[in-house]
Amino acid sequence: MADLVAVPDPSLADLTTLRIGGRPRALLECHTAEAVAAAVAALDDAGVPVLVLGGGSNLVVAGGELDLVVVAVRNSEVGYRPEDAPSPSPSPGPRAGAGDAAAGVIVRAGAGLPWDDLVADTVARGYGGLECLSGIPGSVGATPVQNVGAYGVEVAQVLHRVRWYDRATGTDEWVEPAALGLAYRTSVLKNSSAAVVLEVEFRLDAAGRSEPIRYAELAGRLGVAPGERTDPALVRRTVLELRRGKGMVLDDDDEDTWSAGSFFTNPVISEDELPAVRSRVADRLGAEQAAQMPAFAAAGGVKLSAGWLIERAGFGKGHPSSSSPARLSTKHTLALTNRGHATADDVIALAREVRDGVREAFGVRLHPEPVWVGCSI
Ligand SMILES: Cc1cc2nc3c(=O)[nH]c(=O)nc-3n(C[C@H](O)[C@H](O)[C@H](O)COP(=O)(O)OP(=O)(O)OC[C@H]3O[C@@H](n4cnc5c(N)ncnc54)[C@H](O)[C@@H]3O)c2cc1C
Questions:
Q1: What is the pLDDT of residues 62-103, one digit of tens each?
Q2: d(C-alpha 133, C-alpha 103), whole Å
Q3: Of 341, 345, 350, which Cα lies nearest the Cα of 368?
Q4: Which of 1, 239, 267, 375 has the fewest beta carbons under 10 Å from its own?
Q5: pLDDT band, residue 212 (cuts 50/70/90)
Q6: What domains does the chain contain, in order, with CATH numbers?
Q7: Active-site residue flag, 185
């Protein structure tokens, strides 16, 4: 296959998991890291707006004609090496066995590889580290962009290095995680055109131990104490089961999964604001609910549960109705879904209704998690 392919008649509705979005000026599929960097460099030089696209699973894109060129990142090579081996030219990778039990392993993957293919491959080889992040759609290259996380693990915990093309300086270089400013569902790359991720390296446990299980629901299902490690394959199976129950594994036959995942991040408020929020919950729902409201210590203050607030503000699963083109998933209030014929305007109207309703009910502002292209909430 050629390194770069121009795809005729592109539509973002066909390239995003929300299945909405208009027609870009062009779609360039790039099958090597070098082709990605060259395409973005040429478009930047020509002053053409670029949308760097992975799996389209974290995007809300406007309809109509879009004045931009999509560069689809599709390089997907994978290689493994022992952690203490020199870094260039990774090998196709040994199967984990008794001999390498104590060592760490580095996996290097092309940014365009589907993320869950990488997770499945590492788990099949007996390596631990990525299993809690099973079932998340999208590409490897997008995982550092919003510091992807689920079930108590974030990419920041397992990230080794990132190769990026710096669009300001034109440099293709490897950078350490510290350069990425990784934080809760964000980084210096999110909502920015600073750099394009070309390859990513993750550090894995070659002894076949999962990351410590920190998420209570997962620990309960696995029958382990929080903080314990266990078999990555068992963790993967269990996470996939939990995610399917919440409509968080993409399924072409299930409109409940046609979403951009969690539409809002969990809001972080200051300690000082917490009593006022609890009191608004008490006024509306009673003291018992106020006492039960989930609130966890987090960087920058206290993290609340967006899903809990949405539901308590009156937006139940499936809101507003079974005939609405855009509605909340019937399995999870945090996912806004397209039932097949929603437009970007339908999704935006629903997102505004939910955001404003939560603010009116409890005085808490919800922030959208996806990246917006040509539109905003
Ligand atoms: C059903 C479902 C479940 C989800 N569950 C989770 C979850 O549990 N946890 C979680 O964190 N997220 C979750 N998400 C959100 C999403 O899957 C992740 O954010 C994912 O990493 C996005 O990857 P992508 O390749 O689809 O990115 P895209 O949607 O293609 O792009 C998202 C943003 O990243 C940029 N980008 C993409 N690739 C690159 C690159 N190589 N270099 C630079 N910028 C790039 C794009 O320009 C855009 O700004 C879920 C989404 C869905 C639909």
A1: 999 999 999 999 999 999 999 987 776 554 444 444 333 447
A2: 22
A3: 350
A4: 1
A5: very high
A6: 4-73 (3.30.43.10), 78-245 (3.30.465.10), 255-373 (3.90.78.10)
A7: yes
